[in-house]
Amino acid sequence: MNKVKEIFGSMVFDNSVMKEKLPKETYKIMQNTIQNGKRLDAEVANVVANAMKDWAIEKGATHFTHWFQPMTGITAEKHDSFISPDADGKVIMEFSGKELVKGEADASSFPSGGIRSTFEARGYTAWDPTSYAFIKDNTLYIPTAFCSYGGEAIDKKTPLLRSMEAINKQALRILKIFGNEDVTAVKTTVGPEQEYFLVDKETFDKRPDLIFTGRTLIGAKAPKGQELDDHYYGTIKPRIKAFMNDLDEELWKLGVLAKTEHNEAAPAQHELAPIFTTTNIAMDHNQLTMNLLQTVAAKHGLVCLLHEKPFAGVNGSGKHNNWSLSTNTGVNLFEPGETPYENAQFLLFMCAVIKAVDEYQDLLRISVASASNDHRLGANEAPPAVVSIFVGEELSAILDAIETDTPYDTKEKELLRIGVHVMPRFARDTTDRNRTSPFAFTGNKFEFRMLGSSASIAECNIMINTAVAEELKKFADVLENEKDYEPVLHDLIRTTIREHKRILFNGNGYDDEWIKEAQSRGLLNLKTTPEALVHFLDEKNVQLFADNKVFSEAEMHARSEIMFESYCKVINIEALTMLDMVKGSVIPAVRKYMKELADSAMSMAKFSPLADTTYESEVFAKLSAACAKAYDMTKGMEKALENIKTIKDGCGKAFAYKDIAEAMLGLRALVDEMETLTAKEYWPYPSYSELLFGVR
Ligand code: ADP
Ligand code: MG
Q1: Centroid of ligand 1 to alpha carbon of 193 (angstroms)
Q2: Which value, to the nearest 10 degrees, does the dihedral of the CA atoms of residues 507, 508, 512, 514 take?
Q3: From the candidate CATH numbers 3.30.590.10, 3.40.309.10, 3.40.190.10, 3.30.40.10, the one assigned to the domain spanning 194-318
Q4: Which of 342-346, 417-421, 572-576 has the highest mean pLDDT?
């Protein structure tokens, strides 16, 4: 496809467009803003806005929107047209620097966790010039941050940008100690691999659970699941292939580096991996990807399910967050170097990550906590809820040698002195094969695998960036004023390994033995969202975010409230949907079938004294008992939901909803048993077979 080059980024106001459309001076200032975060003055903003508008109109745009990422986890937009009346009763197309830089949005309908007091409903959107504007659906999209009137972040982008600033600042201090005078900026990079399911739209439309909750709340297993391993990397069906081609094209137009598409482990499951880029752009692109997955699917008569666990019994969907640090001079700081110098620097950054992950395990777990991801973590497919780091055998051996002051290479019988010896090179491939670790070093980056498929990548990167920034800060404080820093550095690395090696684990993360061992190492095992969330406001965490200027304490309280609340809301919707399905359709359908069984048993008996009605009477009895029990459970659940309304505090409420989630599992088991006993024509919903194998 040689048109790829032509369409790639064709709808993006990117560097090449800026170079062409902006006056030289303005272009230079813009570059400085994008690379080094320098502020733009009003005049420059006006010039940029005008050029943007002309370019957008040329491409058919009539509207613009400040595009932002409130704490709902998805994106929000409000469209304004470019029109402005002129003196002759006609219109001209206008777009000012002011409109580009700042927008006003009613914040009252977005979650703010109490930050936005009701009398001050205004919120502001502020242009993020580091993420390119683009055109979608005849509208110029301007990536923005979203703040309250008082300047508090009520979105996902603001704290992410702050966390990138924090790590930039501290990494630069470290790089300076190592003499890297030419580096002026350090950016975090991310490549998020996105998993998803595709189901047929017509089938989807018959399942209220999929419509309202994104997952199946009931459904007996299909005769076949993923046990044959015949879907992973399998041949892609023509209908899916057509969808993927379309999707790639749409993503490419928007400058998203969609690279790899393949079938995943579960039937109907697929994955898309982009090439990594700067984290805030990766976040914007991942949001666009999730959005386009759904709109492009609809064009193909499909529905894309981004839920972490749409189907019981087969794998759920994750989003692997591949994370690294790179300098503006193009150096990946997690690429082991060639010289003793580079090696020492690499090991220090490595130690910062090890220490950060150990000290802030709770935050990493919280960053992936949601009602939907709870179905995945700890099941036999995703990493466990216990956070640990995989570094591979070779790097482990090196860390061991440093920690214990023993020779690494037994042939040479020489101790490995940081800053003196060249660290042995290790082959990248050998580090890549552990697929069960939540946080794996894969040769020149870390792959955080706990993130769920529907989540924004913001939270986990905010946590990683801030925690690593904090450790780099502590290291820099120790090293900065040392004249002869090599022995100090050696000690620092050795002490860090000694104190934090409990977080390192190279074995099988799915193994029950590991969970026991992790416990004896004192690692956290926060199994569910409420259990994780209670740690968010722990003093050390509040301190971390305040010290690094990522969240104020007020912002943290707000976020805590929102996280508890959204967990409760999700389970409440699920419970109501389930009750509706069970009471409104499942039980009535089963009763109809029971009547059919009774009628036919009676008429058969009447017809012939030889008729054997064992089948009718046994199935009837089983269904009768199951129905009664299910009905009873629905009453219990309704009562529990009523009681929850009286609980005032968010945390208490969340734990009560956790019980509801467990009760739903019990009810589901009964319903699924009834499904296997009921004649197919009576069952009110499409089966797992139809859902998972229906796209041909
Ligand atoms: P796999 O995990 O299947 O071995 P790769 O290692 O090629 O695949 O990459 C997986 C993802 O990691 C891709 O999205 C890729 O762009 C991303 N990635 C590669 N290098 C980096 C980096 N330095 N920083 C962030 N992400 C990266
Ligand atoms: Mg991967």
Answers
A1: 9
A2: 20
A3: 3.30.590.10
A4: 572-576
